[in-house]
């Protein structure tokens, strides 16, 4: 990434290529977990977002191209996945949804519990299946989530 930053000149950037950058890195962590006296060496995924900083040329006599001085970023360590496996009772079925709550997969077992087949729900959003009496509760859950800065409810 450093080579890309050094070789990218703002004067050569096209209109659709901004100075903003976002990328993920994986770093080795040797921190001790709280309350445990055993060091756990593993890797953490860090999400880095920021902007390239440019040095403005203040020369009036000639045109000097701007130079990239560095990058100002904010880094967030992503939490490790905590649930590797979930036990499914005999009355349950598995669905997978995207971040926009669009259903992308459904097990055939849905037909055992509902009058639907997987082809009936794949491609639809979860909101399609909300009962009218549940709308207010779901609206309140969305508001609570937004007030908590998007954390899970």
From TrEMBL:
It comes from the Eukaryota. It is found in: Nucleus. Residues 94-149 form the PAS domain. One of its GO terms (molecular function) is RNA polymerase II transcription regulatory region sequence-specific DNA binding. Keywords: DNA-binding, Nucleus, Transcription, Transcription regulation. Its main location: nucleus. One of its GO terms (cellular component) is nucleus. PROSITE patterns: PAS. PANTHER family: HYPOXIA-INDUCIBLE FACTOR 1 ALPHA (PTHR23043), NEURONAL PAS DOMAIN-CONTAINING PROTEIN 3 (PTHR23043:SF30). This is PAS domain-containing protein.
């Amino acid at each position: 990434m450093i080579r890309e930053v050094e070789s990218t000149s703002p004067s050569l950037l096209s209109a659709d290529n901004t100075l903003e950058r976002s990328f993920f890195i994986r770093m080795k962590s040797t921190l001790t977990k709280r309350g445990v006296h055993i060091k756990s060496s593993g890797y953490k995924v860090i999400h880095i977002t920021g902007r390239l900083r440019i040095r403005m040329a203040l020369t009036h006599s000639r045109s000097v191209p701007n130079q990239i001085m560095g990058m100002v970023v904010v880094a967030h360590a992503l939490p490790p996945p905590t649930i590797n496996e979930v036990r499914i009772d005999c009355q349950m079925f598995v669905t997978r949804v995207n971040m926009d709550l669009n259903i992308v997969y459904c097990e055939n077992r849905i037909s055992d519990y509902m009058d639907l087949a997987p082809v009936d729900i794949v491609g639809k959003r979860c909101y399609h299946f909300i009962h009218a009496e549940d709308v207010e509760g779901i609206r309140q859950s969305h508001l609570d989530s937004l007030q908590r800065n998007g954390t899970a409810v």
